[in-house]
Amino acid sequence: MNIYKRHRFPSEIIQHAVWLYHRFNLSHRDIEDLLSERGIQVSYEAIRLWCNKFGPEYANRLKKRRRGFGDTFYLDEVFIKINGVLHYLWRAVDQDGDVIDVYLQKRRDSKTAKRFFKRLLKANQGKPRKIVTDKMGSYPVAHKELMPDVIHDTSQYANNKAELSHQPTRVRERCMRKFKSMEQGQRFLSAHAEVYNLFNLGHHLLSAKNYRIFRHRAFASWEKVVAV
Q1: Which of 33, 123, 133, 168 is the most exposed place for a label (fewest CB within 10 A)?
Q2: Is 139 in contact with 133 (CB distance < 8 Å)?
Q3: Phi and psi based region of residue 2 (left: phi greater than 0; alpha: psi -120 to 50; beta: remaining)
Q4: Domains in the chain: how many in total?
Q5: Which of 160, 180, 200 is the endpoint of a domain?
Q6: Are 102 and 8 within one domain?
Q7: DSSP states of 103-119 as a string?
């Protein structure tokens, strides 16, 4: 099935625009200017529609190609205001910093925690060896019911990795002038997480030669994901 059928612009332009939007801190108008500099005249509104349509599609394809996560999950939640109403963004990352899941909800009670844990088990296709959280009361309830045999660490500072993982989201939230709805926020954050994982290569831990090799592999995977 050709997912680019009936689109006026070539698939390569669409793929590049969606990649730019989810890979870098750029607005739709920024991407419009970047493409215009290359002689490609497309409106920022068309780019927005491309990102809304193809971002989730690429994210789903990346999920299917995923090889799994580490054995330690770091969980945290932060508040996000949408149209003046407080929401909570739940996030889980593994020990390598890869995003396991992001879950935007109106509450942070035990019921929501259990739903989030179920999503993590599905994403990982099994239980981790250890989870690390803060001392919020919702986590022990979900832990006891869904993964009681998994180590649960709530010690001070142990969860810094999850807390720091919110920073890219905060940056993008400011660039986008806040999310306009839960649906928009979840759609963007899910796609952004998958693209982030693909290009999360740990540049500071690699030699320049090895980094270029891993980057080349990431681009090759991206090309397969966005193919017709």
Answers
A1: 33
A2: yes
A3: beta
A4: 2
A5: 180
A6: no
A7: EEES--SHHHHHHHHHH
Do 40 and 79 belong together in one domain? no
| d(C-alpha 116, C-alpha 118), whole Å | 5
Share of the chain above pLDDT 90, in %: 80
Q: Which range marks the domain in which residue 194 is found?
A: 1-65+190-228
Contact 106, 88 (CB under 8 A): yes
Beta bridge partner(s), residue 195: none
- Which amino acid belongs to residue 18? V
CATH of the domain at 148: 3.30.420.10
CA distances from 127 to 71, 77, 117, 118, 161 (A): 8, 20, 10, 10, 19
Question: What pLDDT shows up at residue 126?
Answer: 87
Q: Using an 8 Å Cβ cutoff, are 179 and 160 in contact?
A: no
Question: Does residue 194 sit in the same domain as residue 163?
Answer: no
Q: Give yes or no for a contact between 102 and 89, defined as CB atoms under 8 angstroms apart.
A: yes
**CA proximity to 71, closest of 98, 110, 103:** 98
Task: Give yes or no: residues 174 and 198 share one domain.
Answer: no
- pTM of this structure: 0.90
**Radius of gyration in angstroms for the set of CA atoms belonging to the chain, rounded to a whole number:** 19
Hey, what amino acid is at 84?
Answer: G
CA distances 49 to 4, 21, 52, 186, Å, are: 13, 12, 5, 16
Q: How many residues does the chain have?
A: 228
pLDDT bucket at 200, cuts 50 / 70 / 90: confident
Q: Is residue 204 part of a domain?
A: yes
Read off the pLDDT of residues 123-156 as tens digits, 9 standing for 90 and up.
Answer: 888 899 999 999 999 999 999 999 999 999 999 9
Residue 185 inside a domain? The answer is no
Tokens representing 24 are 């870098």
